[in-house]
Design brief:
The chain is of the alpha+beta class and about 550 residues long. The chain has 18 helices and 18 strands. β6 (about 135-145) and β7 form a beta hairpin. α1 (about 5-25) packs antiparallel against α2 (about 30-45).
């Protein structure tokens, strides 16, 4: 830069500086802007060599542009200096405002660091302000004026054309140019980001249009049923769109399907399953109603989709026909829980049904005593359900966790009727243990086919002799068990007599008549007992009854 004492030279330099600053804002890309910054230091500020070092995302600085020397550009462009080395440089030397001048007397310690640099040999200075080839002048570029904000990069310049160190005017011009360059670089980055965002947005819109078309085709032509339903609001769950496969599965037209939701079509027994199914990723297996009134087993799989960004959300449901699989599963479950010969519940199923009615609390426990006391109905409370003394209604009762008594677990406790000749009118769950008399001789004499036929007929007669809600099960061999709820002592004895009389008549098998008898033992299911204990009790009573009948028969024969 020329001598600052000449006003007309300052004006010419200012015009050049104004021109190069204007060119900074006309560059079309970030790379063009960086090169324009380097070129402007040559053409507008009077230096023979300039390099722009740009801060990378990892903090290091890379030489992004070089001007003034092809050799320097080949050596330095694209090379990187660590942030540590740059921070060291910017903290050395003399501070000229925001500028950092490192004279050759101090800069020799930087010759071996990792910052890319280019220096030419030359004679020693002849006067104090003469530029030395090893002098370094750095102009940091910050996002805010006066060294404020974030460091964007550093402009390094070398070899002023007048051979002198810049004076106050030259220093001010370089500092102002660095700040304007920082603004231009920030704007170029913003434009580049906006351009990338626009390109990305256009690609996303194209992908969205393609995705919507792909979804439409996948939805319409999917081999399994699919439906889109409203999510939230007064019309939550209402079907908005169904594909052909779902309409064919349910035998309903698409126009008619839009009047329903899945809750309108689900089997009454499966409504709880549907309501418990979560919207996102929820799965359920349930039955849906066809137009002809029949039901079909389906698997529902839900997912939530949004119409647009922050727009309304919809429920996408995939409906798969699992009728055949469910029928096969039910058949397997029936085989696992039922006797293959008679079709009656087997031993495992009998124990499961009996165990479901029992609990571990024996009769007469604190829970049953409280349940029958009626305290909850006599507890004084105000209109909001609180006692005047501030206590909870169950405070002070032992055996209830948190004060809440066991009677509210929705379990009906089983209590055996009083044991004795007198019937006190109480009811319970009677367990009738049946053992066939004379079956072994039939099996040995006529073979297993005849024995199987007898067992099948006995099972039929037992089933015909009980109520619809009672259970007739085969334990194995010639042993059967009947579960009959709501019976008193006399009722259970009458039932045993009727079933015995139903078994006694001859059974015709392959043209011959065979006859079997039956011994019944009556036990009672009671909470506090296990299923095994209940069955063992009935079994023991059956053997007592069998022995007593044998003695009676022997006395009658004698």
């Amino acid at each position: 830069m020329e001598t600052e004492s000449e006003p007309y030279v300052r004006l010419a330099t200012l015009r050049q500086l104004h021109q190069v600053v204007a060119e900074l804002n006309t560059a079309r890309s970030l790379a063009d802007t960086l090169q324009t910054v380097a070129d402007g230091a040559i053409t507008g500020l009077g230096y023979e060599l300039a390099a722009v070092n740009l801060v990378r995302p990892d903090g290091d600085l890379v030489v992004a542009a070089v001007a003034g020397s092809a050799g320097a550009e080949a050596l330095m462009a694209g090379r990187t200096g660590s942030r540590t080395s740059w921070d060291r440089r910017l903290s050395m030397g003399e501070r000229w405002g925001d500028l950092c001048f490192i004279p050759h007397t101090e800069g020799w310690v930087l010759d071996d660091d990792d910052v890319p640099q280019w220096h030419t040999a030359g004679p020693a200075p002849r006067f104090p302000d003469e530029w030395h080839p090893m002098d370094r002048l750095l102009a940091p570029m910050y996002t805010a004026a006066n060294g404020g904000g974030e460091l964007l990069g550093v402009i390094s310049v070398d070899r002023p054309r007048n051979g002198r160190r810049p004076g106050p005017w030259g220093q001010e011009a370089l500092q102002m140019y660095a700040f304007q360059s920082a603004i231009a670089i920030s704007n170029a980055r913003l434009r580049a980001n906006m351009q990338r965002a626009l390109v990305r947005l256009e690609r996303e819109q194209q992908a969205l249009r393609a995705s919507e078309e792909s979804f439409r085709q996948a939805f319409e032509y999917a081999p399994s049923g699919m439906a889109v339903a409203e999510m939230g609001g007064d019309q939550h769950g209402r079907l908005l769109r169904t594909n052909d496969a779902l309409c064919r599965l349910l035998g309903r037209p698409a126009s008619g399907m839009r009047r329903y939701s899945f809750s309108d079509l689900v089997h009454p027994e499966d409504i709880g399953t549907l309501l418990r199914t979560s919207a996102e990723g929820g799965r359920a297996e349930l039955r849906l109603a066809r137009r002809d009134g029949t039901y079909v087993w389906v698997s529902l799989r839900n997912s939530v989709v949004a119409d647009t960004t922050d727009g309304p959300r919809f429920l996408l449901t995939h409906v798969e026909d699992i009728e055949e699989r469910k029928r096969h599963e039910l058949q397997l479950a029936h085989r696992a829980s039922h006797d293959s010969l008679t079709g009656l519940p087997n031993s495992a199923e009998l124990r499961a049904r009996l165990g479901a009615r029992l609990c571990s609390r024996p009769p007469g426990s604190m829970a049953d005593a409280y349940a029958s006391s009626g305290v909850i109905h006599t507890d004084p409370r105000d209109a909001h359900g609180f006692r005047p003394d501030g206590k909870e209604p169950f405070d002070g009762l032992d055996g209830f966790e948190g004060g809440l008594p066991a009677p509210f677990d929705h379990h009906v406790h089983l209590v055996a009727p009083a044991d004795g000749p007198a019937d006190d009118g109480s009811k319970g769950l009677a367990v009738l243990f049946c053992d066939l008399d004379g079956f072994k001789s039939i099996n040995d004499r006529f073979g297993h086919n005849t024995g199987d036929a007898v067992l099948i007929e006995v099972a039929r007669r037992l089933t015909s002799g009980v109520r619809d809600g009672d259970t007739v099960a085969r334990l194995g061999g010639d042993e059967f068990v009947v579960l009959a709820d709501g019976l008193g002592t006399a009722d259970a004895e009458d039932l045993a007599v009727r079933l015995r009389n139903a078994i006694i008549p001859p059974i015709r098998v392959e043209g011959r008549a065979v006859r079997v008898g039956a011994s019944f033992g009556i036990g009672w299911a009671s909470c506090g007992m296990t299923a095994e204990e209940v069955l063992e009790s009935a079994d023991q009573r059956m053997y007592v009854e069998k022995r007593s009948r044998s003695k009676a028969n022997r006395r009658a024969a004698g």
